[in-house]
Amino acid sequence: MNQDNTKDALFTGLRIKSGPIPEMVTVKKNIDALLNKRAKRIFMYKMTAVAASLLLIGVFIAFMRNPTMGESTAYAATKEVVLPDGSKVLLNAHSTLHYKKRWNSWKEREVWIEGEAFFTVTKKPSGYHPKFVVHANGLDVAVIGTEFNVYCRRNKVVVVLEKGKVTATGTGDIKGTCSMHPGQMIELNSTGIHLSDVTPVAYTSWKQHRLYFTNAPLSRVAQVLEDNYGYHITWKDKKRMQDTFTGSCPADDTQMLLKAIGLVYNMSVTVKGNTIIFQ
């Protein structure tokens, strides 16, 4: 074989050897597949981030378009509030009510109370959720349509039912659920949820602008004077705080109440500014 033929054979062999190697083709395919998966993951991450951002923006816009409304009263004052569904709330003195400006059919009607209020709830109003919930410092009061009073002060919640039926559920440290019927009272305090029978007018007379007490300890009378009128109470003899009092007077005439207590218990009751001294 001459030199030229030898070269031709060599080049032909090199061309054959330089062709695609099966193992390298497989490796390339695997690398391409991994790169594609990585690109897809990055794309999905980006799309998820975009979706989350849009959701947050939507929630923010919805929140801004449906602000929380607030109503409050000063000492020795009451106020009626009409809610979006037509339900009515009568706020007692020194109380605050919060609720959303707009309600709809897919979310429960909700309000938040601090202080004291009497609720007259519209039953299953058209275009609104049938359930109505009052949130009161660790106690949720759920109703359909009814009339009841909620007192929420001094780490205590008291619900007195006049008409209908309600269910109260502890949502804080105290758990449990209790159903009520007219003429019953639920009290939530540090010891639990307690159900008892009461005379509703003793707890709701303030709606008629009267103070009404039946065998109430003077300490409770003092709390009403502090919570609703902003007085500071001083006792020279704290044992008198357990004496019970029965009586009624106009809500705007606390002087009549104090005179009656002084006469019944033969004690001196002095008012100095916003301080009442029992002695």
Automatic annotation (TrEMBL):
Residues 73-166 form the FecR protein domain. Keywords: Membrane, Transmembrane, Transmembrane helix. The keyword Membrane applies. InterPro entries: FecR, FecR_C, Ferrdict_sens_TM. The keyword Nucleotide-binding does not apply. Gene3D superfamilies: 2.60.120.1440, 3.55.50.30. Residues 210-277 form the Protein FecR C-terminal domain. It holds the Pfam family FecR_C. This is DUF4974 domain-containing protein. The lineage of its organism: Bacteria, Pseudomonadati, Bacteroidota, Chitinophagia, Chitinophagales.
